[in-house]
Amino acid sequence: MEPTSGRGSRPRLTVLGTGYLGATHAVCMAELGFEVLGLDVDEHKIALLQSGEVPFFEPGLPELLRKNLETGRLRFTTSFEEVGAFGDVHFLCVGTPQKQGEFAADMTYVDACFRALVPQLRDGALVVGKSTVPAGTAERLAAELARTCPAADVELAWNPEFLREGFAVEDTLTPDRLVFGVSSEAAEAKLRAAFAPVLELPTPLVVTDFATAQLVKVAANAFLATKISFINAMAEVCEATGGDVTMLSKALGYDSRIGGRFLHAGLGFGGGCLPKDIRAFMARAGELGVDQALSFLREVDAINLRRRARMVDLARELVGGSFGGMRVGVLGAAFKPNSDDIRDSPALDVAAAIQRQGAAVTLYDPAAMDNARARCPELGYRESAIEAARGADIVLHLTEWSEFRQMDPTTLSDVVASRRIVDGRNALDPAQWRAAGWTYRALGRP
Ligand code: UGA
After folding, report:
1. Of 34, 158, 193, 439, which is the most exposed, with the fewest CB atoms less than 10 Å away?
2. How many CB atoms lie within 10 A of CB 326?
3. What's the CA-to-centroid distance between 221 and ligand 1, angstroms?
């Protein structure tokens, strides 16, 4: 890309949307040495970020935010005008949640953000889509950009993001791979400049067309979801045969063609990505006339949701067939450890279902309490695992925070009404709990 006066060859970057993806991307790009301006329409969020506070839980991110605010390389704004005047490369990182009552993705935020940005762009700017979108979006936005942008030599590119919550910093600074969806060599060159420090690591790079770049993202999430549901389907079969899914998974994982990662059976997948992405993928396939190609994802979704129902049934069985008048201590509300995200969280779903069936649920999570309380105010919230378990007829381990995994069963023994635990994440040591006098049950194992 053309050297920008006084700044060497480094493009100035902007990041539109400062949720989990955008805030992490903005901070990490500043950490890599770029000048970065982050934008959000939520003034409160921007004020927090500008004052050095990350509005969500992400290990390592607050320290990097403060460090890069101090260098002056990182700033935040709510002004599209400022973003347009500042940036050479603009990353679109706004959310694409599931539409209310439908499988399809809600494109309102992407479209609104894009349309606010386009009139402000400078000559030669590159707009880079990072949001997870239905195939065809990049082509549509590129055509709109060509038709409506007043500036010259402006282009669109697609650069899907694969970061995991809880490891977002690591995944952004040292990703497994980069994917550039481009329609010109000029766009590729600009993206290469914007990722130069990452490409130097080196990091594998796939340069491809728009359609493939958008598909890589949803295909990756569909594969991961399928792998989890596969092992959870095996857990169902283990339950019927007396097998142990943790041993099955271990043995399968030693086959390097299969691999042990994302083969952990339990309550299944949740969060703001996997569930809604497989549904949006199915919806898009239907529109494209290839719904049969993805009809297996319906089963992947169904297996996943069945695990939550099975968890509720197992817990009810263990307390004698009815939750009426029972105290249930729940450990975990986040959709996975090291996150405060409760979007489509299996743990919170199970807790709420059990409360609806007449139990008094008391819950503790190390990071997701505020989010859980806002979503499910009817549950009882406690300040520690011990307090959540106090007086419980049964304890449910639903999110495998290390604090829970390392818990000593004897310390809980003194506070519960009955020593019964269901390990929804297959992350506790059954022998240890049984030795301490507990009835230990888990999904997919005897
Ligand atoms: C997921 C993908 O892993 C990322 O690569 C992707 O970038 C991201 O979605 C996204 O689309 O933005 P994330 O939602 O942060 O990342 O969470 P994961 O680590 O994938 O976990 C998803 C769910 O699967 C969690 O509820 C977790 O408990 C569950 N899981 C994971 C299992 O039940 N078993 C496993 O073996 C692995």
Report:
1. 439
2. 22
3. 8
Query: CB count, 10 Å around CB of 41?
Result: 16
CA distance 262 to 265: 9
Q: Are 12 and 37 a contacting pair, CB within 8 Å?
A: yes
What gap in Å lies between CA 267 and CA 250, rounded to an integer? Answer: 18
- Tally of CA atoms within 13 A in the half-sphere of 106 that contains its CB: 11
What are the residues facing 396 on neighbouring strands?
330, 422
Query: Which phi and psi angles does 122 have, rounded to 5°?
Result: -95, 165
In tens, the pLDDT along 54-78 reads 999 999 999 999 999 999 999 999 9
The predicted-structure confidence for 32-51, as pLDDT tens digits, reads as follows 999 999 999 999 999 999 99
Give dist(CA 446, CA 204) in Å, integer.
Answer: 43
Q: Which residues contact 388 (CB under 8 A, 6 or more apart)?
A: 329, 330, 331, 362, 363, 364, 382, 395
Backbone dihedral angles phi then psi of residue 358, each to the nearest 5 degrees: 105, 0
228 CB under 6 A from ligand 1?
yes
Contact 180, 208 (CB under 8 A): yes
Read off the pLDDT of each residue in 92-109 and give the average, rounded to a whole number.
94
Least confident of 98-102, 176-180, 385-389: 98-102
Count other Cβ atoms within 10 Å, centred on residue 254. Answer: 9
Task: Give the chain's mean pLDDT.
Answer: 96
Q: Say how far apart CA 224 and CA 207 lie, in whole Å.
A: 22
Place of tokens 């007086």: 391
Separation CA 236–CA 307 (nearest Å): 9
Q: Give how far Cα 110 sits from Cα of 130, 266, 298, Å.
A: 10, 34, 26
DSSP code at position 270: -
Which residues are within 8 A (CB) of 65 and not within 5 positions of it... i.e. 6 or more apart?
Answer: 23, 27, 49, 52, 53, 54, 74
Contact present, 13 and 1 (Cβ < 8 Å): no
Q: Which residues are designated catalytic?
A: 273
User: One-letter amino acid identity for 393?
Assistant: D
Residues 6+ apart with CB under 8 A from 413: 419, 436, 437, 438
For residue 267, the ligand 1 atom closest to its alpha carbon is 33
Contact partners, residue 374, CB within 8 Å, separation at least 6: none
Per-residue pLDDT at 9 exceeds 90: no
pTM: 0.95
Residue nearest to atom 10 of ligand 1 (CA): 273
Give distance in angstroms: CA of 121 to centre of ligand 1.
35
Rounded distance from Cα 347 to ligand 1 centre (Å): 14
